[in-house]
């Protein structure tokens, strides 16, 4: 989609205007150098263009070679993987046979172990009967110890409660005394004169009336400063708008030049497409393509066998 109107903000306009300004200064400097006797760099640019085309052809050929080498490596890796699968199948057969033999031996061993375990269980059951009587005696001894500890803890808890009740009683009496003192009435009467100072002995002391006058003067000065600042902001805004309009005119001129640059870029794309057609005729690429085709056929045959 071409020629879409784009709304630019102030930052974008200034940024694009600065870019075009630098380009214009570079063009003026190059023109001044030519007027002062400098050589025209067109021949060098033409040679540089040819060298770039040659480098581009070599780069495209190298990229195609790498791509084909990667594909060839992939085919070889798939063949190697298929060979490994065949070897693993043979190993799996051997392992299954060995596993069946081991399972047979394991079953015989388990039968012998179960027989020995039954004999061992009978011996353990006889030992458990004797251990049960000793366990009952130990449990009775533990219950006696727990009962004695509970009686001792109950006496200590009763003593701690009595001490805590005594402390709370003393604290309640003290709070009642404080509340009685605070409830006594106090009489305070003082007449305030707004024209008198505080009497602290300072040079800068002022009465409330003087403070109000000083505050009114400060508010008027602040209002005047705000009005002046507001006018300054308006002037700055108008100057900025005019600067943006000038930048927009400059941007429109340079965008017209970008159209011609787009035509040059289209020509460069045509050169790249021609280079792609050339590098397909490279002998290295043809050899690699042949090898890749052979490996692909071999891999498909191996896959059918699997």
UniProtKB/TrEMBL annotation:
Metal-binding among keywords: no
Organism: Ramphastos sulfuratus
Coiled coil regions, renumbered to chain: 85-178, 208-238
Name the UniProt record assigns to this protein: CFA99 protein
Record keywords, A-Z: Coiled coil
């Amino acid at each position: 989609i071409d020629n879409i109107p784009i709304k630019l903000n102030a930052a974008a306009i200034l940024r694009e205007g600065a870019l075009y300004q630098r380009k214009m200064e570079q063009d003026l400097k190059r023109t001044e150098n030519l007027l002062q006797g400098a050589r025209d760099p067109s021949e060098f640019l033409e040679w540089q263009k040819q060298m770039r085309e040659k480098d581009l052809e070599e780069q495209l050929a190298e990229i195609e070679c790498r791509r084909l080498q990667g594909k060839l490596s992939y085919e070889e890796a798939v063949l190697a993987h298929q060979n490994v699968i065949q070897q693993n199948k043979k190993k799996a057969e051997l392992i299954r046979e060995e596993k069946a033999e081991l399972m047979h031996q394991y079953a015989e061993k388990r039968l012998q172990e179960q027989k020995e375990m039954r004999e061992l269980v009978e011996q353990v059951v006889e030992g458990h009967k004797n251990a049960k009587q000793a366990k009952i005696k130990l449990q009775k001894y533990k219950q006696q110890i727990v009962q004695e500890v509970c009686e001792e803890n109950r006496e200590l808890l009763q003593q701690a409660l009595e001490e805590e009740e005594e402390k709370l009683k003393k604290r309640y009496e003290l709070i009642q005394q404080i509340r009685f003192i605070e409830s006594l009435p106090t009489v305070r009467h003082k007449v305030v004169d707004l024209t008198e100072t505080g009497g602290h002995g300072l040079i800068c002391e002022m009465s409330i009336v003087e403070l109000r006058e000083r505050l009114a003067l400060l508010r008027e000065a602040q209002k005047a400063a705000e009005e002046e600042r507001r006018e300054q902001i308006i002037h700055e805004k108008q100057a900025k708008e005019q600067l943006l309009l000038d930048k927009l005119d400059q941007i429109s001129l340079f965008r017209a030049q970008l159209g011609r640059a787009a035509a040059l870029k289209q020509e460069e794309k045509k050169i790249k497409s021609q280079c792609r057609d050339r590098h397909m005729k490279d002998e290295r690429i043809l050899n690699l393509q042949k090898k890749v085709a052979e490996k692909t056929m071999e891999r498909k045959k191996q896959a059918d066998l699997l």
